[in-house]
Amino acid sequence: MLNLSEVLMERQHQMDGFEDLVRAVHEQARAKNERFFRMDVRPPFADTPENWEDRLEAAFY
Q1: Per the confidence metrics, is the pTM higher than 0.85?
Q2: Other Cβ atoms closer than 10 A to 56
């Protein structure tokens, strides 16, 4: 299972905004061949949209 908090901890220094997080979730899902995604925290970026959960879920799948 891929947890959003893990992605943020592992790559936070490489991300400047929400779009970088979308790419990171997509890359992590593919690299680790994960089947499940848990959004256990809200992204801390100023540009996080209202539909952030939908956007990250789409990036994961």
Answers
A1: yes
A2: 23
